[in-house]
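tmp note - ABC transporter ATP-binding protein
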Amino acid sequence: MSVAVSNLSVDYRGHGPDLHAVRDVSFVIPPGKMLGLVGESGSGKSTVAFALMGLLQANARIISGDMQIGGRSYDLTKNATAPLRGHGLAMIFQDPLLSLNPVFTIGAHLIEILRVAAPGESAGRRRAMAEEALAKVKLTDPRRRLDQYPHELSGGMRQRVVIAMALLAKPVLLIADEPTTALDVTVEASVMREICALRDELNCSVLLITHSLGLVTKYCDDMAVLYAGEMLEQGPARAIQRRPGHPYSRLLLDCEVAIDQPRREPAMANSFKVIGGELPDLRRPVSGCVFAARCDRAVADCAVTVPSAVRLDEEGRHKARCLRIGAS
Ligand SMILES: Nc1ncnc2c1ncn2[C@@H]1O[C@H](COP(=O)(O)OP(=O)(O)OP(=O)(O)O)[C@@H](O)[C@H]1O
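out:
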């Protein structure tokens, strides 16, 4: 089933004017495909994820947005997707301990999911299914793991357990929010491989949220570039990598350090900082292009005219919002 998000806008209330964290964001993830949502810290990636899951904080307000799953539409302003959590929708967080209760064994977590996902099965069969799921995500010694507690496992092993939980829940959409940021590079590759294997086995849509363009170009089918809450470019990951349409995407790609290099984290943290300037104040109304103040290609018009999406391929899959597209 295809997953489509349309016109998502989210504000946060606080002291002073509301903060417009996400503005009019739309994207589609076909079944069996992975979309990488990239953008620097504060661009609104997690807000998108939490809005889809119905997990936003109390001071957030979804101004507009709906999600279509298959032919069905869910009104995000009414938190309509919240009942889908745990089966239609699943999420992997940067810290797997957010998904694991320290007082329950690994087996108890998996068996709890099977109570909903496989209600007709006997207790013995559910335990066997839980063990199979752990073996599938390549957790060593799966039978013993069932009786262990989350604190007895390493970070990479815990993330595999969370992937096994998603495997049993059979979601239509899996959201992975920085799933490998806390892990070292060798573990990162194996965890990403398990997420890809899950996508292929369930034929589900995956939204990967990450700072790393390297991860996106290596593992994702499509890419979406978010900046100051606005989608500046989206399309096939390879096409954007080869021919970025937006100057911001080009700068991100220029800054990105190959993920195979020995220690990626500091480079990743730095990669966005080498683009001069800072995100605009999200409490103020934007005129023109949100990136204009930092853009090396901006002309006077960019500060006043809001760019609409320009198609960069015949099918209209690759689109970018920039007034300078086509200008020399
Ligand atoms: N509960 C909140 N109240 C007020 N502002 C918030 C709240 N949560 C997030 N924000 C603001 O919303 C904007 C988007 O934040 P968000 O966490 O979605 O970005 P992000 O791209 O996921 O960043 P990171 O990569 O650091 O997680 C930021 O300006 C952030 O400070």
